[in-house]
Amino acid sequence: MNLSISLEMIRKTEGIKRLENYVRDLIQLDRKHTALRLQEEELTYSTLYILSSILQKHGMTKHLEDRYKVALAIQRDILSSERSPATPFPYSICDMPQFIHSVLRWMVESGSEDNLNAKYRLVIDRAAGLLTTVYQDPEDLTLVSDLLFRRRKLGHSTHYLTWAYFSSRNLSSLIPIAKRLISTDESDVQLASELLHFVSGIEESEDRYSYFRSWYAENLPYLLQNKNNYELTAELKPYIVDHHAKYMEDQPDSLKRRSDNFHSLHEDVKEKLANYSYQLRMHSRKDWKVWMNSPLETQVRSIEEGQHDYNRR
């Protein structure tokens, strides 16, 4: 038996069965040496997952370093039949929350490229979900978005990951998605387009990425979390544009009646008024103030007649 070859190398070059047999034989031969081998820094979560049942059966988990012990605890918790995706994360009250965060990130980062089985994908997806819903670190967004697109490419469900990703409540989460619009991989472009379906006008644009960047820059100050749309649905709409804020900006309370009338309009009309108001305000604040003092009915009529066609980009 070669005692110097790494466990990762065995898995990647000789396969899972060979790795399992190797570790079983190693435990029988020398438990102390096995304990040392389990401290390998390059060990990935994929390998730990494969070996977890063997290590538990032979009482070797107590020899693992803390990161691996916590990873196995998270794994057991996720796979427990008593838990559901909506159950609060039990490790959020841990004395070392940042350590738990680092373990979750290690699990996703080192394990997301492997596609072992359905249970394994469940653990990785839930770990990624905990990163976005509990810790909400912006630096994790690219990692989780990469996993999301990898799942779609392999034909696996992306509903949970989509919900978990946008549950980060971070507006910058839209950027990694939008960058996929210029991917050379058609499946990336398709999924990105689906996820950004709520961006008005993007489907008709010839250059969707440029359109998104323009839309994002313009609407970022007015984007709101769509709190009523955070369920597992095929067409998640995580953010909505506050058309009223975009239309009115910082107008005085004397225009309260105008505000009330605006809310009674159809959503399409609100959007057109808000877009035109924003464009005019950026062009000439003086002209915008004059326009804002005209009756709302006049504003609506002029836009419907095509005098202010905002959609020409």
| pLDDT averaged over residues | 85
Shape: elongated
Could you say how many structural domains there are in total?
A: 2
Element-by-element helix/strand order: HHHHHHHHHHHHEEHHHHH
Q: What percent of residues adopt helix (DSSP H or I)?
A: 55-70%
Query: What is the tally of helical segments?
Result: 17
Q: What brief labels describe this structure?
A:
mainly alpha; 2 domains; 2 strands; disordered C terminus; 313 residues; 17 helices; 2% strand
Write the layout of secondary structure elements.
Elements: H1 7-14, H2 16-29, H3 31-37, H4 45-57, H5 66-79, H6 97-111, H7 118-135, H8 141-153, H9 159-166, H10 174-179, H11 186-195, H12 208-219, E1 223-225, E2 239-241, H13 243-248, H14 256-263, H15 267-283, H16 285-292, H17 296-304
Antiparallel strand pairs: 1-2
Helix pairs in contact: 1-2, 2-3, 4-5, 5-6, 5-7, 6-7, 7-8, 7-9, 15-16
What does this structure look like?
It is elongated and about 90 Å long. It has 313 residues and is mainly α. It has helices at residues 7-14, 16-29, 31-37, 45-57, 66-79, 97-111, 118-135, 141-153, 159-166, 174-179, 186-195, 208-219, 243-248, 256-263, 267-283, 285-292, 296-304, and strands at residues 223-225, 239-241. The chain has 2 domains: 64-241; 245-304, no CATH class. It has a two-stranded antiparallel ribbon with strand order 1-2.
